[in-house]
């Protein structure tokens, strides 16, 4: 990605997948508000006033094109996708299957590849055939792994070492784009967000926010780790920046993103408390026993996300992209709490 040009670029005609998802519901209106003309690629052509996506968030001037299920479109001839993308200059691909426990590892990997890997590569081919010259792909920071060691954070320069079907499917999509981009002449930016927080959060962040608001005791005071997060506003800001600053045709940039701050789990809970105006009830409980209890309850993934470290160093992004996060972690959490 080149540093920002001193003169703003004109608005672009941008195709977007995943407009009804957690990220897309914020990203689509933000990009439209920045002057971009959006084409929302969705399963069905359902749209509300002013071209609202399925989730009902107004997107001024947006065009909605029905493409059916992306997993099915990826195995079809591709003509439907090519037609949907005609007239667009860039594609932002946010859609995909997120973390869900499904079947054994082999079954899960096949399903995730069908929803995350194959559609991404099909969209790249269709975009090039339709005359689109830029693609932004939302991957995940978990392509580097799920745990970091003290003093050894992940960054954009870290190798791919995915574990788990979801991360493997995203890493496979990244590697496929690296092979395809030179052949297609497509400028590709890969965005690898940390765990995203924002209005109406999901999963563990939503559970923690609810627990803090209800004053429930949380046994995290003895945990000493570092966790990276990424505000939805910061992620959307980077996507807009990437649209204005693509790599050269046929090249691929990859950016592992997070907020600048990396709190411990108890520090994160205290930030949630400050955002909600409630003092969290943190109590000390041995992390080893907490891990065992959660694992025995079938929540090993939750234990990992609460107890282990997952730290991202964004200095390569700051040094090479010309972008800086517009919001601090504390401000992002405050906005999340106000909206929820």
TrEMBL record:
It comes from Camelimonas lactis. It holds the Pfam family Epimerase. This is Nucleoside-diphosphate-sugar epimerase. It comes from the Bacteria. Residues 15-246 form the NAD-dependent epimerase/dehydratase domain.
